[in-house]
Amino acid sequence: MTALNTLVPYQAQPVPLLLTPGPLTTSPAVKRTMLIDHGTWDDEYKALTETVRQELLSVAQAPAADYTTILMQGSGTFAVEAALGTAVPQDGVLLIAMNGAYGRRMGQIADYYNIVHVDLEFAEDEPVTREKVLTVLDDHPEVTHFATVHCETTTGILNPIDAIIPAVHARGVVTIVDAMSSFGGVPIDTAALGLDYLISSSNKCIQGVPGFGFIIANRTALARTEGNARSLSLDLYDQNQSFDQQHGKWRFTSPTHVLYAFHQALQELAAEGGVPARFARYTRSEQQLRQGMLALGYAPVIAEADQSPIITSFKYPSAAFDFHAFYAYLKDRGFIIYPGKVSTIDSFRIGNIGEVYTGDIQQLLRWIKTYSTVRVQSGRKID
Ligand SMILES: *Cc1c(COP(=O)(O)O)cnc(C)c1O
């Protein structure tokens, strides 16, 4: 048998730092948990599943009497699809407030399920507003469900769910938030907001690895969804029944390594000081990045007041800017950045979630400074 401490990464090369919005850079301890194989039938594994479900409720500020956590195999989109496809009945009408690719993806999911949806579209650099949402609800009394994205990762804009969700909830509309890229990194008081479904995944701000999504669901709202699902594997109601009635048993094969890694990541979140401390770290990094980039001539796409501490979009500094050369230069020096996703502006993105600290951002800014200075002086690309 191979001793665990003799195992080394399969490539003995420097590990790059991911400045991307998930998968992201995880801690050595999170990676180490995945060196052990586990069976899904095991009581210890089921107990760990229950622990993770409970701990997520506390991160979400969602009391166990009123809320349940449903883990769902797959990437984050699988969890969004499970939530929409289970929460919204065949005769429901969904209002989607969107200002980016992930909001539009909810519209695509609704199309697959033949869910009637009203789309409230905002420009990608404008936040969703409560005022417009309420106006559309006035105009469309047939709406039964409302969905929006918290941090729209397309740009890094943060939508003000604290203002929007309580107002929508007060109208008796079921509320659904894709908090994929913000949950764990930005405080969300699920119960106080009157949020019925909060969706996130293992590889974002909890700082685990990819493999499952999860939904924090209000028990009263979920209880009304029996038989709604138009997909067997993505039936949230059924998945929850299995967890609740079989002491943490997933319905189908689950990503065992990912769950162990995620449990370790949750312990590290608590050790850091919980969501408020992580929010403070991400905010510091984002400020440092934003100010440093501005000083180097890279303008952010999103106004500071609407910017999330998760990921920042920067405009190309000139029409001649070669993103691929810039990307390759930084990659050679150990930093992986992210292409832009804004439809109308040439941009790139730099994330600062994960095991990323002030010193890393400082080093990144130094390389970008060197790159930018040499490029400007020589008038040509460098590699
Ligand atoms: C990451 C992300 C998703 C899910 O994307 P997957 O590629 O399916 O994991 C959904 N919404 C937002 C806002 C995200 O950031």
Automatic annotation (TrEMBL):
<keyword id="KW-0670">Pyruvate</keyword>
<dbReference type="InterPro" id="IPR012703">
    <property type="entry name" value="NH2EtPonate_pyrv_transaminase"/>
</dbReference>
<dbReference type="InterPro" id="IPR015421">
    <property type="entry name" value="PyrdxlP-dep_Trfase_major"/>
</dbReference>
<dbReference type="InterPro" id="IPR000192">
    <property type="entry name" value="Aminotrans_V_dom"/>
</dbReference>
<keyword id="KW-0032">Aminotransferase</keyword>
<dbReference type="InterPro" id="IPR015424">
    <property type="entry name" value="PyrdxlP-dep_Trfase"/>
</dbReference>
<dbReference type="Pfam" id="PF00266">
    <property type="entry name" value="Aminotran_5"/>
</dbReference>
<protein>
    <recommendedName>
        <fullName>2-aminoethylphosphonate--pyruvate transaminase</fullName>
        <ecNumber>2.6.1.37</ecNumber>
    </recommendedName>
</protein>
<keyword id="KW-0663">Pyridoxal phosphate</keyword>
<comment type="similarity">
    <text>Belongs to the class-V pyridoxal-phosphate-dependent aminotransferase family. PhnW subfamily.</text>
</comment>
<dbReference type="InterPro" id="IPR015422">
    <property type="entry name" value="PyrdxlP-dep_Trfase_small"/>
</dbReference>
<feature type="modified residue" description="N6-(pyridoxal phosphate)lysine">
    <location>
        <position position="204"/>
    </location>
</feature>
<comment type="subunit">
    <text>Homodimer.</text>
</comment>
<comment type="function">
    <text>Involved in phosphonate degradation.</text>
</comment>
<feature type="domain" description="Aminotransferase class V">
    <location>
        <begin position="45"/>
        <end position="343"/>
    </location>
</feature>
<keyword id="KW-0808">Transferase</keyword>
<dbReference type="GO" id="GO:0047304">
    <property type="term" value="F:2-aminoethylphosphonate-pyruvate transaminase activity"/>
</dbReference>
<dbReference type="InterPro" id="IPR024169">
    <property type="entry name" value="SP_NH2Trfase/AEP_transaminase"/>
</dbReference>
